Amino acid sequence: MSLNVTRNRLMAAVAAGLVFVAQATLADDDHETKEAWRLFVADHTQPVVRAIDFESGKELGRYDTKGYAALTASASGQTVFATQSDSDIVHVIRTGIEFSDHGEHRDLDVSDAGLLPVTFEGKRPFHVVPHDDHAILFYDRGGKAEIIDEAALLEGKADVRTIDTTAPHHGVAVTMGKFVLVSAPDTEAKTKPDELPPRIGLRVIDEKGEQVGDITKCTDLHGEATSARLIAVGCKEGVLVARPGGTGGPKLEMLNYPENLPKGYVGTLLGGRTMQFFLGNYGEDKVVLIDPDGKEPYRLVELPTRRVDFILDPADPRNAYILTEDGNLHVLDVIKGEIVRKANVTEPYSKDGHWRDPRPRLAVADGRIALTDPRHALVRVIDAETLKETRTIPVEGQPFSIVAVGGSGASH
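The structure assignment produced for this chain is given below.
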């Protein structure tokens, strides 16, 4: 589906949504609507993750970990995975935010956040991919990936299906129905001691753990995202798209980079939720919008300086936010394929230096952008429409990785 068609459908959906909201309001007068948002913030150097009430800025909990943590929220928002690659362990935090669907409305239940008693250990856990009611944890040096059931986690249990990744490598795994897509390493590559082999493609694994068909070529595979029913991964040749294929397994299609694109490739991907599209980096100072069903799948967007972080707005499907190293926050209209406004929101943070040096990270909560500013021990709250800072939340140490969890729902 092209983004032009998507725009027309989006407008129709908005109109229909207004009617739905009006009808739901009449039907649900006995429901009190409430809203709750929480931030989970990991420190850059200290082994700690904090839960923060977004509205009040109050710290709700402080959770000690073994090392530096990268944070990933589950698809439901009920859990946050704190991945400590250098310490070979993953902790899981219960967010205390739970939604339950009731057809014409959804209920919101709010409870205390807390560290769950289940941990996952293995050699260098890295990529965590949230998907439906589970998450997939990939161990770069462990030669395995784990599919983790979230419902069991919330009960304090570990229900895990282990996938063999052939050999240790910096890779990723993601489920598609009954199948699992797993990166494939070059097992014949000559590597130096302690060096991981390169990625050469993508494998499809069935329920029995057996490979279906041949490895599909995807050189230096890196970056994964889901949009609608499609999964995309970044490759040196292009973006590889997986589509559901029934009992025979997913169908894989390479969207080769066109000749009119400058030299570069995608290594990080984000997937649209309401609309089917992907947003990827393209080098350090460009991004690409990817429409898998479009006649011309790629639209290049050039940035004034190198990109520090970028994120899609889950509630406003046409907005993406990109922070560049000059401290400017850019709003990308994914329908128009262009930057529509920008504002300076923090001091410059150079991309030079180590890739994991303390730099701002972005999260989105109800029309507001939460931006960590590690130099000033702050989370800055930016209005997504005006791009003006509305307030700051002091956070001890060097706030770095951040996720936002929450929304609105009915309370009976």
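Interim note for the steering committee: Confidence is low (pLDDT under 50) at residues 8-27. The first strand starts at residue 32 and ends at 43.
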